[in-house]
Specification:
- The protein has six helices and three strands.
- It has 171 residues and is mainly α.
- It has a domain of 75 residues: Winged helix-like DNA-binding domain superfamily/Winged helix DNA-binding domain (Arc Repressor Mutant, subunit A), CATH 1.10.10.
- It has a three-stranded antiparallel beta sheet with strand order 1-3-2.
- A hairpin with a 7-residue loop joins strand 2 and strand 3.
- Helix 3 packs across helix 4.
- It is globular and about 60 Å long.
- The protein starts with 6 loop residues before the first helix and ends in a 17-residue tail after the last helix.
């Protein structure tokens, strides 16, 4: 049996990978001209989970409800989200994504992949294979960590306490 990394070793290594991936995304792969990071995160959450309460979005982004209200209003004015009636609470609204919002996110994803493909030309075939295999192994584990973090922050299945509107994340 080979080297068995400690929890600290794993945390440090995975943290470095996530830091580098975040930096790569921010500097080379994302287009901040059309959306701020907070707006992109919020729009992605609504895209991934379906209609969500504003309070849930604020909790997930770690900002106040008034700040999230302003952000959602900007997204509404841009035609990227819409308010929907909450079937569980007539006083509340859900934030849903529009066709224009879906198109914008799909275009951003396609653009990121095109930019990444251009960067990948700097790697040789063995490096590409190693990166592909590492990503295939890491992705489901990172998804599990993200689901656990959502649950720890927002209650079971990533829901904010008392919120029955968020769909559970698949693991």
């Amino acid at each position: 049996m080979g080297y068995q990394p400690t929890d600290h070793d794993v945390s440090a290594c995975v943290g470095d990978v996530l830091d580098q991936a975040t930096d790569l995304t921010a500097r080379f792969l994302s287009d901040r001209a059309d959306l701020s990071a907070s707006a992109a995160f919020t729009l992605n959450t609504v895209y991934r989970e379906g209609p969500v309460r504003l309070t849930t979005l604020a909790t997930r982004e770690g900002i106040s409800q008034p700040s999230m209200t302003q952000l959602v209003q900007r997204l509404e004015r841009a035609g990227l989200v819409t308010r929907l009636a909450d079937p569980d609470d007539g006083r509340a609204a859900l934030i849903g994504i529009t066709a224009a919002g879906r198109t914008l996110l799909d275009d951003r994803k396609r653009m990121r992949r095109e930019r990444l493909a251009a960067l990948m030309t700097t790697l040789n075939d063995e490096e590409k294979s190693a990166l592909w295999l590492s990503a295939r192994v890491a992705l489901p584990l990172i998804d599990r960590l993200a689901a656990y973090a959502d649950c720890a922050t927002n209650g079971p299945a990533g829901r904010q306490a008392g919120d029955s509107t968020s769909a559970p994340r698949s693991m």
